[in-house]
Design a protein that fits this description.
With 417 residues, this protein is an alpha+beta fold. It has a domain at 10-268: Deoxyribonuclease I, Chain A (4-Layer Sandwich). It has helices at residues 56-67, 81-88, 153-167, 197-209, 240-245, 293-300, 306-325, 328-348, 352-380, 392-405, and strands at 10-14, 20-22, 43-47, 71-75, 95-99, 108-112, 117-125, 128-135, 141-148, 174-179, 189-190, 213-214, 217-218, 224-226, 229-231, 234-238, 249-253, 264-268. The strands form 3 sheets. The protein has a 9-stranded mixed β-sheet, with no helix packed on it. Helix 3 runs parallel beside helix 4 (197-209), helix 6 (293-300) packs antiparallel against helix 7 and helix 8 packs antiparallel against helix 9. The protein is globular. The protein starts with 9 loop residues before the first strand and ends in a 12-residue tail after the last helix.
Amino acid sequence: MGEQGAIGTLYAESKLGRSKKINPQTCKGPIPLLFLCLFQMIVASWNCQGAGSKTFPRLINEVVKKYRINIMGIMEPRISGARADKVVKKMGFSNWIRVESTGYAGGIWVLWNDWEVSIEYVCSTTQLLHCKITSKTSAETMLATFVYGDTNPLRRRELWNSLRNIASSIDSDWMVLGDFNTFLTVEDKVGGTRPDNSMMISFRSCIDDCNLLEIPVVGDRFTWERNDVKERLDWAFRNFNWEINHPHMKAHHKLRFKSNHRMIVVSDGGENRINRSNRVFKYQAAWCLEQDFVDIVAASWENKNWLQGCESFKKSAMEWNEKVVGSVAAKKKKLLIRLEGIDKARQSNRSNGLQRLEKRIWEDYSKLAAQEELIWFQKSRSKWLKWGDKNTSFFHATTVMRKKRNSIEALQDSNGS
């Protein structure tokens, strides 16, 4: 990526110390693989179209408090150097990284508080800032790329190539958000001239090549407005792993706050959570992999008619599921911890007992893995993939997407409201 476009001047700064210039790396090298986990952070992106006004720091303070933002991405601040230093120090964050503006154009700032998260710089160009985010409370991690696409379509090709380079090295949760300065479809613009088809094709091709999915939007779909023209230029995407681990994440399009661009706030609002006490009984095909399940079935209908047996089976199966089957993922995790301990013990003790124990635990782990895949296969209702093909991730994501399609989150009237 270094050969494809100039790398923006980057500064890492803190209220506790002086500004320090960083030698930016390119995004061609390997990016470390991270843990797949639930990461509950509120991340915002906003093209403020200039951060030099006296009231700007106070506005950011108010917005951060209002939406409880943990990480703030600011695009196109149009100031840099010493003047930018003075502004960011008034914005209420303890740490920040900046890709400096080129003259009065561009620029990307990422700001956070070090008691909530830590952010590690990975790479940058003039059009993106890529970083690793770690929660201080849970040690959970993710990758995030903040984008400010060049207004010149030719220079935006460098951005698409940069995102492809990053995507080729990622096998973990990844979010991409910011001002891309382009459209995916003709419906992303109302008024003015028709969007250029070649620009949309380039954007769609990049999103497809990176295996990115759009984060569902809450609010007005258009993010930029001037006179009678409305456009969607600001976007938030996530990859396949993110979709699986963050099924309730939404991109909320907030007010424009004295800019032509709306602020995007990505958060998990906790919608559509399952109330376990009111769950509808559902038979789990994975129960058949447990040896004592046959006894549960036989005992439920012993000396009972069909309706009585159904009620008895429902109650017995749910109680048995909680006590015996439980959380397959949690049980797999515990078995892996035991296996690690046995492996360390065997390095200094060649006991046959440890070897037999290790073999038995691996058998239990294989059974749990089969149960997990069968559970998600049943939930996904997939008809073209056979269970047993090791497609647990696919089944999981299919289930999440199907639930989203089947849920009603908002109603739209004839006026588009």
